[in-house]
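Class, discuss our next protein.
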Amino acid sequence: MGNHSEREEKKVSNIRILVVEDDPDILHLLIYTLRSAGFNVLSNQDGYEALNAVRIHHPDLIILDLMIPGIDGFEVCKELKRNSVTRSIPVIMLTARGEEIDRIVGLELGADDYVVKPFSPRELLLRIRAILRRSTPETTAESSYWQNEGFQVDLEAHKVSINGEDVPLTATEFKLLAELIRNRGKVQTRDQLLDKVWGYRFEGYARTVDTHVRRLRQKISPYSEWVETVRGVGYRFKG
């Protein structure tokens, strides 16, 4: 039992998280929370410095405040997601701006999750661990390769291509697509998808699923209609 615990601790300590936050009290809380959980933590308080830190250290996950000096968190996220080198790094937006439009804009830009201040450190850790789990390729007993017409998905390698062209999906978008494909023909409710893809269920976060589905459809065009909306229930993959 002791050896297993040591292996888990070593595994977590190899995970590097970049915290971008300009409020000293919140920054201290985040660093303390993450280091207490065993993570390797880097921090920045400026948007430009954060982008530079990402290029140098290539963290495994970024916690990004929106209202920061330099360039704001939205612009930082936009820059990260349009760069092929940093696109796959998961981003959790952390902000006092809790309006639905802000959350939707953040998710549309490619953020994997959106946490509103004041936040629960325990909930934040749960979300971090859920994102890290879905960023790791899973091996299953079923076929790891799916194809229909020009749409190809390698479930083990986390690769998607359409008509021979690679489709850049975030870890969350890929996990969502994989879950829909594995259950193709069956309706998946928003709560089921939150549980299976995000690893949690919180009231008010069903719109998170809708936003990711909308972005997924944009990326897998011309097969977007294969992700069917079942009104009042959820989604079904028809491919």
In short: The domain at 145-237 is CATH 1.10.10.10 (Arc Repressor Mutant, subunit A). The mean pLDDT is 85.
